Amino acid sequence: MAQVTEPETDNLGETLAVEAGGHTPWREYFSFSTDHKVIGIQYLVCTFIFYLIGGALATAVRTELATPDSDFVSRELYNGLFTIHATVMIFLWIVPAGTGAFGNYLIPLMIGARDMAFPRLNAIAFWLIPPGGILLLSSFFVGAAGAGWTSYPPLSTTGEKAGEFIWILSVLILGTSSILGGINFLTTILKMRMPGMGLNDMPLFCWAMLAASALILISTPVLAGALILLAFDLIAGTAFFNPMGGGDPVVYQHMFWFYSHPAVYIMILPIFGMISDILPVHARKPIFGYQAIAYSSMAISFLGLIVWAHHMFTSGTPGWLRMFFMVATMIIAVPTGIKVFSWLATVWGGKIRLNSAMLFGLGFVSMFVIGGLSGIMIASVPFDIHVHDTYFIVAHLHYVLFGGSVFGLYAGIYHWFPKMTGRMMNEFLGKLHFVLTFIGFNLCFLPMHYLGLQGMPRRVAEYDPKFATVNLICTVGSYILAVSTFPLIINAVWSWIGGAKASGNPWDALTMEWQTASPPPVENFIGEPVRLTGPYDYGMGDRNSGIPMPESQANTPMLSGGPTVS
Ligand code: HEM
Ligand SMILES: [Cu+2]
Cα of 20 to ligand 2 centre, how many Å? Predict the structure, then answer.
């Protein structure tokens, strides 16, 4: 359990909270703790380690692609590398880091609760991750699965059987973890809010987690079903997906994408929520369009469930059905656009603090817009048929998953690090991290749009020499991207040990997690948490100053209704 640290006196208003708050001893992070804050940090550190492994695999993939010949690794190993790279990045980094790490750490604090609704279930959900991940990586020793992270039959059922089976098992374990987490978030948000906090008084991150959790509960079991049937086909000789025995491989694709399209929103919705909470703080302005952002999360969640077959335009889907999925997919641009314009209106004219958190937040918005635009392009059937299975798709998915998700996760790390550790991060290293990431990322993935339009296929270890120069540029970009993680790692370790002490509320933010000590005491708040303002009432005291209410006003509870949108 957390220990009491030396009392601090530098922050007058907080002495009480700081005295009772405390730093968690190291061994606590290696124990089966049920404290949501410990579990959140366990998730963050553990998934970050997997991210580094996934990144190393990506670097190997790009090294192979630096030249047109297959000279760095064998073709089989290449298939294993990009398959495990993609699986690690999705199931062991973005999904668990967005939901498990930030969801766990922030949700109870933001709604004024003492912990998650089911603390032990929470610990179980986390402790499925390390074994699931290690199992997945161990598949390299038996010949890793090489059918891509989609694992379509018949390729997946006729290739490397042991590796494929391990892949199925580990994804099932990781999916189970995600479902257990989803149940917990849904219950916590709906049942554990502090007295007087309605749904419309919650920070937008909570709304986003509500939408993401609903998606997890509806769609992940379908993936589990598909994988179990696939496992039977693989090892027991059944023919659910094998036409020779009366099965249909396209059924697998339907089941797979019924999960995996929503999975994109399971990854991105928590990030949307984080950005909606980060931008107003560092722009010193109320969020623009609170309700529009909140409800657009729900709309995205619903629409996300009915568009899966846009991944199957070339799978013999009949024309009339393709029209439905094309239109439904394009409609998702509406709620997404609402969010983007609300963010722009939020920062517009604000007193912007261009610190690392804000740089990554703004970087997220711009990179995500590029990914969104190429998304609308490939939603259109004729264009998709043209670029299907080319590098255009690889470019698009990385703009969404790296530009959209990883930039947002980075913003979240810089923003909430002081809360989690009680220490400030170094701004110089943070900015260096941003610049390297931004350059490396765009150098690596922007040219892939061109490669795709020119017809370079994805998932190949060798390619036409006419693509050599552009591929070399991409590979250089990927090395810069790999280097870019060092300033972050150095910064995080160094700041955690010896960074400047953070006050309870170093950013002058208004959401509940900043109204307690950094790091928060064991049960989050000393006494009953009190909500003094809405989550985004910046500048209510003096509209022109762009700073939150003066201390005198902040102590008088002044807001009982929803957040003010002005
Ligand atoms: C969190 C970040 C990332 C995610 C979620 C991610 C996800 C994916 C996914 C899903 C694929 C599969 C595409 C397919 O099946 O054809 C893939 C492939 C690939 N990734 Fe990543 N990736 C990430 C980061 C990176 C980075 C940093 C690099 C480069 C350094 C990279 C390089 C590649 C390459 C070159 C392929 C193509 C493999 C091929 O088609 O042969 N990825 N990635
Ligand atoms: Cu999709």
Answer: 47
